[in-house]
From TrEMBL:
Record-linked PANTHER family: PHOSPHATE REGULON TRANSCRIPTIONAL REGULATORY PROTEIN PHOB (PTHR48111:SF40), REGULATOR OF RPOS (PTHR48111)
Regions recorded as binding DNA: 130-230
Domain OmpR/PhoB-type: 130-230
Biological role: This protein is a positive regulator for the phosphate regulon. Transcription of this operon is positively regulated by PhoB and PhoR when phosphate is limited.
Designated name of the protein: Phosphate regulon transcriptional regulatory protein PhoB
Pfam family for this entry, one: Trans_reg_C
NCBIfam families hit by this protein: PhoB
Amino acid sequence: MNERKVLIVDDEFAIRDMLRMALEIAEFRCLEAENIHEAFTRVVDDRPDIVLLDWMLPGGSGLELLRRLKRNDTTKDIPVIMLTAKTAEDNVIQGLDVGADDYITKPFAPRELIARIKALLRRVAGGDDEDRIQVAELVLDGESRRIFLADEPVDMGPTEFNLLQFFMSHPERAYTRNQLLDQVWGANVYVEERTVDVHIRRLRKALQTDLRDYSDLIQTVRGTGYRFSSRGVAAR
């Protein structure tokens, strides 16, 4: 049986125990850590498929660990879901900006968390679309899940990749944030609309390199949402 490994990083035993029981029922294998130093060691040694990371931890915040994971070439692609207090609005945006793939606010239902974990793992694994899509010097290879701009590889997270893949497969059409959530995150997963804005910012930043700036392919459509448009790109 190929169990997916989930690392639970939380300093409260009761929360770790609750999460572990829910995840094991859902047939995940659970690893646990109660501080950022122990957590980083577990990530490096055990290579979990996903990390559930609490914001407030002894010996340093979850954000500090998130930054460390995203700076390290061997751990930067491991998806991370932040667990945050309901009132920590700035924390949510800050965590997503640093590199968190998703977040869930406390208190939460275990069933919702399991759904979010499964949806994120599906996004990381990618779908069955193995097409190679090209717009001028921007190339998306669905089979290898790699992006190239002017023949140089572009580093971006799994959610940004899936967003770009959806946009490039459906150009010149405006999508609302809710439509993007349904198409990229999944219709049965609750994610707030502002999450889309954060990942759009990260996608645009990834499309700005020293050689080329293709960030304006992702257009903001006032009163609606976003659109991918390649009109005018050939003139560059």
